[in-house]
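The following block was generated as part of the benchmark described in Methods. Ligand: 2-phosphoglycolic acid.
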Amino acid sequence: MAENSNGIRPLVAGNWKMNGLAAALTEAAAVRDALPSLGTGAPEVMICPPATLLSQLASTSRGSALAVGAQDCHPSASGAHTGDISAEMAKDAGASAVIVGHSERRADHGELDRIVQAKASAAHRAGLSAIICIGETNGERVAGLTLTVVERQLRGSIPGTADKTNTVIAYEPIWAIGTGLTPSPNDVAEVHAAIRKNLEDRFGADGLSMRILYGGSVKPSNARELLSLPNVNGALVGGASLKAEDFLAIIRAYA
Ligand code: PGA
């Protein structure tokens, strides 16, 4: 698959969402322990557990190839925001990245592009990579608005501090998340090509090297096909990241 990756090392990130008690860390440990046996083409691998497990996962992963990410952060570094965590806190707990703008956050918490942009800025301020999620609804796709929506979200959600080392874009069609449905390979390739062009227009050479992940019902059975598409530099995996066996099968699509 190297020919499709523009020299970009792929990233396979697992988003556990609101799943996982301490006992689930055995799944993460199984992933961690399998990584050394992957070949030289192995992607970077990350698990984003709920905030309650961040520091435990970070401490059991320290010194291994498994990276740890948070699922959200507040734009401010500290303050009177009950229940929120800041990017600095996620970093302090051992995260190297944070997901921002996931469609579930946008829907459940009314997060608009400008909030997502502020969260991505906060990630950069704290020294974290921002994994910025974008994607259209089914209605928008049916209306032929996919590229319009995605370009608007890119413009509104990515801060000027973004570069190839601190920013990852995750294209996640909302109708494909947790549904078992995926866009056709042609549709994924078309959207990723449009994202690449948009990133290049705005960020020049860095835009050519930023990772663009696909997310939405990635599973062992479709990973190889989806991850080999042009401008698909890895995956953001929800449900199939909860079991080490499934997540590793997706990671091994790069073997
Ligand atoms: P899914 O979720 O893999 O369960 O579809 C992906 C995501 O929401 O990041």
